[in-house]
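Q: Predict the assembly, please.
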Amino acid sequence: MDIFIGLATVLSSPALLGWIVSAAVVGMVVGAVPGLTASAAIAMLLPVTFYMDPLAALAFLYVIGKSGRYGGSIAAILFNTPGTAASAATQIDGYPLSQRGLSSKAMKVATVSSVIGDFTGEILLILGVGIIAAIALTLGPPELFAVYFAAFVVIGSVIGKSVVKGLASAALGVLIKMVGTDPISAAERYTFGSYELINGIGLVPLMIGMFVLAEVLSQMETRGAKIEKFDEPDSAEAKARNRLSWAEYKPCIPHVIRSSFIGAFIGMLPGLGSAIAAFVAYGEGKRRAKNPDEWGKGALEGIAAPEAANNAVSGPSMAPLLTLGIPGSTIGAILVGVFLIHGIQIGPTLFLTSRELVYSLFAAGLIGIAAYGLVGYFGASFVGRFIIKIPTDILYPMIFLTSFIAAYASRGSLFDVWVMVAAGVLGWLMKKLEFNPAAFVIAFVLAGGAEETFRQSLLLSDNGLLIFVTRPVALGFLLLGVLTVFIRARSLHREARAQALGDT
Amino acid sequence: METRRGLSGATAALVFPERISSIVGLLTVAVLYVWLISKFGYLISTATIAPMVMWMFGMRNPLALVATAILCPATYHYTFFVALGVFPPYGEWFDLLDIIQGN
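A: Predicted assembly structure:
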């Protein structure tokens, strides 16, 4: 019922609809530019949204996240370069189709599958989030801390190639968050006598540095690399060949349905994200396919499966964010900043205090999916042509300059610009050394809540740390975290061994 | 044993890129930019840095570089400090805004 009220709110506001449609276009373009990600665009645009109405700000950034995930497929299909990590699986079958002059058909399959996947994820979120929030309301500080602990460990160990480096990245994020004032005793921590550090390190400059400036530095390294040209169908015959018929799409449907549920399930788990969902769906699709030999050579199903999965992640990844305050992705971590700036406390009480806003945001998500679906279905080729014309010697300098003013605008502080530059260097180094900037940022966002619940638990406890062991739910989550590290380390070792055996 | 080995995972040595000098150059420009903002305000610093960064990214057209020096500060200034109402960072030593605003 709430979602219909949300839809009425959104549909009755032309300004809001305008923000949603523009977000659909911006996200698609940004996602399609190789090297630029939706996270980078959201981080840059975040300060602009401070001056917007909370719903418009959240809807704008949320829809950019959605269409950015889809936009990655345009670059994967047309340029053989995934616009986002999540679209790398789409590239496997997308680019061979493009080489055969079927790029428009491939993009139509990607669009339809992304839209179905995204709608599935969003609807599951709408149906399930209220239940999760009701459960979350029953959790006390020890249970919440255990959930935070599990999230830290899962995010640290699952993203990236090394568990130790992932956990170290998460630990660094926690350490940086500790800078500032102790929330209980008000004592200064790691401020080194600096007035600016008393308020802690700002989330916005940190994000802009990590995702925007670090990317500009990476682009400096790869500057001048040629983008492969794509075969754009122009003749009437080519256009006819690129039409997508029902008979062609029908075999994709079972893959899209299965992949949508795979993506939705993975989306609910913090840290796993779109890329993992896309590859799991691709692997599962190929395993069950009637034509596995054609996968990898330009099978339409090979595009449909990963695209449905990577977009189905988007909605359910909001569930841990909205109900527990745990961002499952970097986009989620940035949205935490938007909620905080507008004075909205995320967590289980969000559904009591801002229920209408939350369901209006979901409604905006549904409309955003339809918007990028329509724009993508009819205009993805145009977006591809537009992107190839963007000169990188203008684009990246503009992004560089924008990152500085965006970091400044967040709090009107030059100190934040220094933080952004430092975070940019750190982000670039972390990528070079295969540490994990995403785990770092998510841990930074989680650390405040984790510290608060940890200390509240100790104040409640008569037996110190034993409170986490004596409460079954808390113990369950702690064990889940430990088990995740164990399983992940084993699987990484097996992968490395299999690869070594394959090489010899 | 498997778990212990898997924990360390793949190790990556810090391989310095061929274009390390460009990256160090860009970082130096970044630091210089923030310092310039603090001393000369936003307009002059952006007019100085914008063409430098474009040149570093390969732009060699002199007209484009001059246009950048004028359009970038004007556009960003208008968007953020006029349209969005953000309070601009005034230069400690000199600021063009003082002259523009007649102070």
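Residues 19-100 of chain B form one domain. Residues 47 and 69 of chain B are 4 Å apart (CA to CA).
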